[in-house]
Specification:
heterodimer, A: mainly alpha, two-stranded antiparallel ribbon, 12 helices, 7 strands, B: alpha+beta, Jelly Rolls, 5-stranded antiparallel beta sheet, 4-stranded antiparallel beta sheet, 1 helix, globular
Chain lengths: 313, 148
C-alpha cells in the first residue's frame, strides 16, 4: 500500500513546498521578461572605487535618501519653491507598481524639502500622498494615521519631524528589502533622487553656473549616478535569472542622463586624514575640480526635466 | 518513506519560519538598537542596509559622501556575533579608518572637504567561542548627518 501512495506523497510534498516558495515570492511584484534591448556595455561606467567589487561578498549600494537629497539641496543655498513639487492632484494617476514606487520616492523628497523649509501644512499633505503610494505598494504600516497624527502634534519641532520622515522611509525600505522586493526599493530611491536633481536644476534658474554652489552639488551627483547604475544592474535579474521589466525600463530611460553626466568631470585629489581628538570628528581633507560647461549643464537640466515629467505622468 | 516525507516537510517549514524570523529580527535590531547610536544631533538618513552574516563573512557598501556635511557611520552586529570590524576606503584604495585600531568601536564621525565615493568594508571575525558551528546574526550599516 505504501508503495502505491509513494508518487502521490511525493507530489503532495512538492506541491506544498512550491506553495511555500510561491508564498514567499508572491509579495514580489516584479514583472519579468526574457530579453531586453539594453546594451549594458553602454550603461556601466568604470570607476576606481568599484575596481575590486567582490561579488562573493554581500554588496550594498547606497544612494542619498530623499531626506539627505533635500538636505544637500538646502545646504547648497537653495530657496524653497512649492511650484516645483509634484502636484498632489496627481496622486490618483499612479496605479502601476513602477509609478507608485517612483512617486513614493518623489513625494518623500518633496515632503523632506518642504519640512526643511518649515512648510508644515505642505509637509502633512505630502506625507498623506506618500502614505497613499506606500499603501498602493502594499507596504504594511510604513506610514499610518498615527504617523500623520505625530506629525501634526509636532509641527513646531523640526528635529521630531525629521525623525518621523526618516523613520517612515526606513519602514518602507526595510519592509521592501525584507520581503524580497529589493527592485521596488531601488526604484523608490531612484524616484527620490531624480526629484532632488529636478528641484536643484530648476532652482539654478538663469543664474551663472560659475562659482555656483548648487551647480557644483548637481555636478557631484555624477558620483551618485554611478551608484544608481550599479544598484539597478544588481537588481536587474532575480535569483532565477529572469529580468525585472521595470528595472530594465528605468535603465533605458536613464541612458540620456548618463550621456549628460559623461560631459561632467569630477576630479578629486588624494585624501589627507585629520583627526580631532577633542570633537572626535575626523576631517577628510582633499581638493576637487568640477568641470561643466553651460551647454552641458543645460543639457543635463533638460534631460532631468524630461525624465521627471515621465515619472510623474 | 512517510517518515522521510514528514521530516522533509518539517525541515522546509522550519527553514521558511526561521528565514522570516531572522529577517524580522534584523529589521527590529537595526531600528531599535543600531539606530539609537545616531544621537548627538545626527539624523538617520532613512536608508536600510542590514543582512544576516555569519562569522568569517564580509560585506561591502558603496556610497557618495558630500562636502560640507557632517556624517556619522554606525555599524553594529547582534549579540550573537563577535564585535564587527570595519574599514573606510577611498578611490585610491587608501584606508581612511579602521576600527580595529580603535577598540572595534561601532561609530565613526567625519566630514569631507570635497565629495567622495567611499567603500565601507565590513567583516564579522571568527569568534573564540566553543560552539562547533559559526554564529550568525544581523549586521546593520546606518548613516546619519547633521543639519546645517
Amino acid at each position: 500500500m505504501q508503495s502505491n501512495n509513494f508518487p502521490l506523497n511525493i507530489i503532495r510534498y512538492i506541491v506544498i513546498c512550491s506553495l511555500l516558495v510561491l508564498f514567499t515570492s508572491c509579495k514580489s511584484d516584479k514583472t519579468k521578461h526574457k530579453s531586453s534591448e539594453l546594451n549594458l556595455e553602454d550603461f556601466i561606467t568604470e570607476d576606481d572605487i568599484f575596481d575590486d567589487v567582490n561579488q562573493a561578498k554581500k554588496i550594498f549600494y547606497s544612494l542619498p535618501s530623499p531626506l539627505e537629497t533635500a538636505m544637500l539641496i538646502k545646504s547648497a543655498g537653495a530657496d524653497y519653491d512649492e511650484e516645483l513639487l509634484n502636484s498632489l492632484d496627481n496622486v490618483d494617476k499612479y496605479t502601476t507598481n513602477m509609478s507608485m514606487a517612483l512617486n513614493l520616492g518623489i513625494y518623500t523628497t518633496d515632503l523632506s524639502f518642504a519640512s526643511l523649509f518649515d512648510q508644515t501644512q505642505t509637509s502633512i499633505n505630502y506625507m498623506e500622498a506618500a502614505k497613499k503610494m506606500a499603501e498602493g505598494l502594499d507596504i504594511v504600516d510604513a506610514i499610518n494615521n498615527e504617523t500623520i497624527k505625530r506629525l501634526e502634534q509636532n509641527l513646531n519641532n523640526r528635529d521630531i519631524i525629521m525623525d518621523i520622515i526618516s523613520e517612515t522611509f526606513l519602514n518602507s525600505s526595510s519592509y521592501l528589502k525584507e520581503n524580497d522586493r529589493q527592485a521596488v526599493a531601488a526604484i523608490v530611491l531612484v524616484g527620490g533622487w531624480i526629484e532632488g536633481l529636478y528641484i536643484a536644476t530648476q532652482l539654478v534658474g538663469n543664474k551663472s553656473i560659475e562659482n555656483n554652489k548648487l551647480v557644483d552639488r548637481i555636478s557631484e551627483q555624477k558620483l551618485s549616478f554611478n551608484i544608481v547604475q550599479r544598484m539597478l544592474e544588481e537588481n536587474r535579474k532575480d535569483e532565477s535569472g529572469e529580468e525585472d521589466e521595470d528595472i530594465v525600463d528605468l535603465m533605458v530611460q536613464l541612458k540620456e542622463l548618463k550621456n549628460s553626466f559623461d560631459k561632467v568631470k569630477v576630479e578629486t585629489s588624494e585624501i589627507k586624514i585629520e583627526p580631532n581628538n577633542e570633537t572626535n570628528v575626523t576631517t577628510l581633507k582633499s581638493q576637487s575640480k568640477i568641470t561643466i560647461t553651460p551647454e552641458a549643464f543645460n543639457e543635463l537640466k533638460e534631460n532631468v526635466r524630461i525624465l521627471r515629467t515621465n515619472f510623474i505622468q | 518513506m512517510k517518515k522521510l516525507l514528514r521530516f522533509l516537510f518539517i525541515v522546509t517549514i522550519f527553514a521558511f519560519t526561521a528565514s522570516l524570523y531572522l529577517s524580522a529580527q534584523c529589521k527590529g535590531f537595526a531600528k531599535k538598537i543600531c539606530k539609537t547610536e545616531l544621537n548627538e544631533g545626527y539624523i538617520h538618513d532613512g536608508n536600510y542596509h542590514a543582512a544576516i552574516l555569519t562569522e568569517g563573512e564580509e560585506a561591502e557598501l558603496y556610497k557618495t559622501f558630500y562636502s560640507g556635511q557632517d556624517y556619522r557611520i554606525v555599524i553594529c552586529g547582534s549579540n550573537a556575533l563577535p564585535d564587527v570590524e570595519f574599514q573606510i576606503i577611498d578611490a585610491y584604495k587608501n584606508i581612511l579608518y579602521d576600527n580595529r585600531q580603535h577598540n572595534l568601536i561601532r561609530i565613526w564621525d567625519f566630514r569631507l572637504e570635497s565629495s567622495q565615493q567611499l567603500k565601507i568594508a565590513v567583516k564579522v571575525p571568527v569568534g573564540k567561542g566553543d560552539s562547533e558551528y559559526p554564529a550568525s546574526g544581523c549586521v546593520a550599516i546606518m548613516f546619519g548627518f547633521r543639519e546645517k
